[in-house]
Amino acid sequence: xxxxxxxxxxxxxxxxxxxxxxxxxxxxxxxxxxxxxxxxxxxxxxxxxxxxxxxxxxxxxxxxxxxxxxxxxxxxxxxxxxxxxxxxxxxxxxxxxxxxxxxxxxxxxxxxxxxxxxxxxxxxxxxxxxxxxxxxxxxxxxxxxxxxxxxxxxxxxxxxxxxxxxxxxxxxxxxxxxxxxxxxxxxxxxxxxxxxxxxxxxxxxxxxxxxxxxxxxxxxxxx
Length: 223
Hints:
Elements: H1 18-30, H2 45-60, H3 70-99, H4 106-131, E1 152-153, H5 171-184, E2 191-192, H6 195-222
Antiparallel strand pairs: 1-2
């Protein structure tokens, strides 16, 4: 007697907020480690600004996505814009630092390049997580609002594999997308579908390419 396999229930991991909040918090703390020759502004100013934007998000939904407040999503998008802008300023500072012929300390270059690259990956991972199909709340199966069209095409969405029915991406999936885009400078297993996602992925790949090709390469030569 044959039995029909039951469809897998959607995973609850896509409702977890704390991985994204923790990743953003780590990046904000990393800003204190930016070498002084790269950033002359007070070290506490920019991290404090980002932390002020992060607090309302953690306060309302500290561990799981429970309360849907559209204004909170807008705050997080502002936070991402601030983080990306800070990172771009650091990268520009690195390029100016190299152009002025002051790049004799290889440790400073390696440290700055690593911090810029990690910040780039995490910031865009959260960005993908926040915009794909209207955000994490809109992706919930029981959400009252209609889900928007996908911004990213994950392999699990196209393959008919037993046990993956009803699969929904979590923050780790978006972090992997951002990591591969920053290392391969292009999409890998997950493809961007919308113009906004292609713009974001192109920007992320460009920042990563400049960081590795210009800063990291010079640091290796110095060392």
